[in-house]
Amino acid sequence: MEVRRWIDGDESAGDMLARFSIERPFLLLPPLHRVPLRVGNVVELVGPSSSAKTLILIQAAIGCILPKDWNGVNYGGLGRLVVFIDLDCRFDILCLSTMLKHRIKEANGLLVKTNVERDHLDTQKCDERRKPHVDYDEELYALCMKRFLYVRCCDSFEFLASLKTLHYQLKQVEAAQQSSVYLLMIDSSIGAFHWVERASSFTQSSTHRKSLSLQNVSETVVQEMRKLLRMHPMLVIATKTISLGDRYANENQRKKSFPDTTSTHKVPYREYMPSVWQSFVTHRILIRASDDPATVRHQQICSVYLSEWLLPPSSLLDKFIVKDGFIFIVP
To answer: What pLDDT is stored for residue 24 in this prediction?
Structure first.
């Protein structure tokens, strides 16, 4: 009946675009706002340690689990489910809770904007300090936290097992929440277990198990994720920790010395993931910390981060800071 109604239906292009934007909305979130991201894309956040990659994931998750409207208040969210796969077992749930509460208070105008509170609110350390009379919508907070699904993996076997069984878990959760999953996040690095398992493989005498090489694990991960995305269309965002070293400095120096030279785009770091994963990725963005701090209101000094699109390649370089639970683009 639904198929027949769809065939016989008549809608304008504007109605079709409006319906499609609701069913599969774009994710426009700094610093990922340069390229509209939607269901089916596989985004790789590349950067060294302490480059705000996890904070970007948390910010994207909050924008997804918050509703668009709630009790007459506009939150601008998607009201969808998020799956967060933690590969280093260091995810700070208090950080997510603090930033979510901050977003709810900000939308309701309940934040106390005093110098003392701003000095004590350090988002990067996720230290939750609020005044007793500052309240938030607890019902909305509980609803949003139920939309955040957390999976922790300690080795490649647990990671692969989670991907294989995630379909059945999502079916139950989607039926209970009456909502579909929009975001699948993998943190802290898609190749997190490679070096540990490579070192431990030399001490194992048994050869009955299949080798846990990075190639074998990556092939299985991509295969299982393709199956999962066919059954549950989602936007995938995965982080990858890399070491820039002098390669990035040399690349920037070459661009300054030969600005008019045109050549194939090369990543300014040593790629260690197999080609099966690289071909699976549709978008790639490089995140790194800047050496120049920024002074914002009330003479506060914040760390500045730089974002650069590598896939699709772009010459634009965005600067952003993280303050009070939000990511701000700075000129």
So the answer is: 53
